[in-house]
């Protein structure tokens, strides 16, 4: 009997289910499917040329991530973003990011550091160009790079289970010029501490970065509620 260790097997290709789940996740994160909106299953099946079965399996995954709510015999609805949800979510993500920073400073390789620095340079280019979508894409690669460099699969699993909800909150919020500049300054310090492999300072900066993001998202949600006349 031939035995091939898992480490020598070809990497698993993305399945239809995984690809469909990511596409739906992106639609929600980027706001194409708005909070409270009923998920248009028939339209999505036609758009992606899939049957209801893989679509509903994908929706189950997104429900486990808190992005949709499954309604018995009524399909799925995009979950709403509430202040209570943010107050619960962001401190946990801040703790996970802080731990990732500490571990990354211990384990990061020169090649990984160089790659993250490259994403940071690309992020700055997008900031100067006023390209918010491009900025977010490069920004996310930085955080993913730090997470990868931490070399802790358990941490990675918990982080990714929550990260989509944080990303969605970021897209829903209105990014002011002042907050954008503040975030860029925070990222400059993140790269400085990571390059110096100063885990304590990096952890503190990452935690503060999430706290400031929570404050900005909360202010944006309050403003939207005031405009809609729905704030208590």
Walk me through what this model shows.
With 232 residues, this protein is mainly alpha-helical. The protein has two domains: 16-78, Orthogonal Bundle (Arc Repressor Mutant, subunit A); 83-228, GntR ligand-binding domain-like (Four Helix Bundle (Hemerythrin (Met), subunit A)). Helix content is 72%, strand content 3%. It has nine helices and two strands. It has helices at 16-29, 41-48, 52-64, 83-107, 110-129, 132-150, 153-172, 177-195, 199-228, and strands spanning 68-71, 75-78. It has a two-stranded antiparallel ribbon with strand order 1-2. A hairpin with a 3-residue loop joins strand 1 and strand 2 (75-78). Helix 1 (16-29) packs across helix 3, helix 4 runs antiparallel to helix 9 (199-228) and helix 5 (110-129) runs antiparallel to helix 6 (132-150). The radius of gyration is 19 Å and the shape is globular. The model is unreliable at 1-13 (pLDDT under 50).
CATH superfamily grouping of the largest domain: GntR ligand-binding domain-like
| Sheet having the most strands | 2 strands, antiparallel
CATH class of the largest domain: Mainly Alpha
How many helix segments? 9
pLDDT below 50 for ≥5 consecutive residues: which ranges?
Answer: 1-13
Query: Topology as H/E string?
Result: HHHEEHHHHHH
Number of domains: 2
Radius of gyration: 19 Å
- Number of β-strand runs: 2
């Amino acid at each position: 009997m031939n035995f091939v260790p898992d480490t020598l097997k070809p990497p698993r290709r993305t399945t239809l289910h995984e690809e469909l789940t990511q596409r739906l996740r992106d639609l929600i994160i980027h706001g194409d499917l708005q909070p409270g909106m009923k998920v248009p299953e028939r339209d999505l099946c036609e758009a992606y040329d899939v049957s209801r079965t893989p679509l509903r399996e994908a929706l189950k995954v997104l429900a486990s991530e808190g992005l949709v709510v499954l309604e018995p015999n009524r399909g799925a609805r995009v979950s709403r973003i509430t202040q209570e949800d943010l107050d619960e979510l962001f401190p946990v993500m801040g703790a996970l990011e802080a731990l990732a920073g500490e571990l990354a400073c211990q384990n990061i390789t020169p090649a990984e550091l160089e790659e993250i620095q490259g994403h940071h340079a690309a992020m700055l280019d997008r900031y100067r160009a006023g390209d918010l979508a491009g900025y977010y894409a490069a920004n996310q690669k930085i955080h993913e790079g730090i997470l990868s460099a931490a070399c802790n699969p358990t941490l990675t699993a918990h982080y990714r289970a929550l990260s989509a909800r944080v990303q969605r909150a970021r897209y829903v919020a209105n990014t002011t010029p002042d907050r954008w500049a503040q975030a860029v300054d925070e990222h400059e310090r993140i790269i400085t501490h990571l390059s110096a492999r100063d885990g304590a300072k990096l952890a503190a900066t990452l935690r503060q970065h999430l706290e400031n993001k929570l404050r900005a998202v909360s202010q944006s949600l309050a403003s939207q509620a005031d405009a809609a006349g729905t704030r208590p």
